[in-house]
Amino acid sequence: MAIFLTKDSKVIVQGMTGATGMKHTKLMLADGTNIVGGVNPRKAGTSVDFDGTEVPVFGSVKEAMEKTGADVSVLFVPPAFAKAAVVEAIDAEIPLAVVITEGIAVHDSAAFWAYASAKGNKTRIIGPNCPGLITPGQSNAGIIPGDITKPGKIGLVSKSGTLTYQMMYELRDIGFTSAVGIGGDPVIGTTHIDALAAFEADPETELIVMIGEIGGDAEERAADFIKANVTKPVVGYVAGFTAPEGKTMGHAGAIVSGSSGTAQAKKEALEAAGVKVGKTPSETARLARAALSA
């Protein structure tokens, strides 16, 4: 099983013909992703050869969906044009839009998030500023390395891209149903709670690993959701225990106000909901192993 992405997913790439899009389309194809097209209005009607696999380029998301039945779009579009690209995906009502782009203005992210809501949330947005998601052995939509883990019974949801990779590697012998990188910006589409609900409903996910980071209150809200709705064991990690007090760190979302948003406050909220929280990624992996063998 999997959440949001399966071997049957038909993926298009907005921005496929750019350098980053080309590089990662090639890697996604190598992971077995069913990429059925790219989108670039200036190159519509052409195709790109990826080591013998011809991928057609369409003028719009709507046209790509009509011609291929695509149900997922991965966006490698520069920040200045990302809002228009996401709005185009929402207008076409593609079920899943994975926004990899970093550096999108928060105002733009808020605008396309609100637009998706106003349109009835027919398009699930993952990101922006995220590594995407992978269902090992089935499909990979984004930039997560496909060779660091295998199919298994852990579901992973993470704000941080690099910590997603580290946790997948640490638990590679057990493997994952799906791993979802939701991104660390202040305004994102899919949240920890959305992924937790999907993993709770997935019969093959036996354990959930949740990675958060300092700033905001997403992890505290996730803790409330876990307490009320999640029956499976959850293991957590919060990045930022060693962050200097009062300093804005890394991701745009990592803004701490008073005691709210600190790693310690998040750890306490999660532990109060029955989540075992590691102080390091390696300790978190050990806690996950222990929870699975309990």
Considering the chains and any ligands shown, give keywords for the structure.
294 residues, alpha/beta, Rossmann fold, 7-stranded mixed β-sheet, 14 strands, 34% helix, globular
Could you please describe the fold and organization of this structure?
By secondary structure, the chain is of the alpha/beta class. It folds into two domains: 11-126, Rossmann fold (3-Layer(aba) Sandwich); 148-293, Succinyl-CoA synthetase domains (Rossmann fold, 3-Layer(aba) Sandwich), CATH 3.40.50.261. Helices cover 34% and strands 23% of the residues. It has nine helices and 14 strands. The strands form two sheets. Strands 3-4-2-1-5-6-7 form a seven-stranded mixed sheet, with helices on both faces. It has a seven-stranded mixed sheet with strand order 9-8-11-10-12-13-14, with helices on both faces. α3 runs parallel beside α4 (106-118), α5 (161-170) packs across α9 and α6 (192-201) runs parallel beside α7. It is globular and about 55 Å long. It starts with 10 loop residues before the first strand and ends with a helix. Pathway: Carbohydrate metabolism; tricarboxylic acid cycle; succinate from succinyl-CoA (ligase route): step 1/1. Belongs to the succinate/malate CoA ligase alpha subunit family. Keywords: Ligase, Nucleotide-binding, Tricarboxylic acid cycle. Heterotetramer of two alpha and two beta subunits. It catalyses: GTP + succinate + CoA = succinyl-CoA + GDP + phosphate; succinate + ATP + CoA = succinyl-CoA + ADP + phosphate.
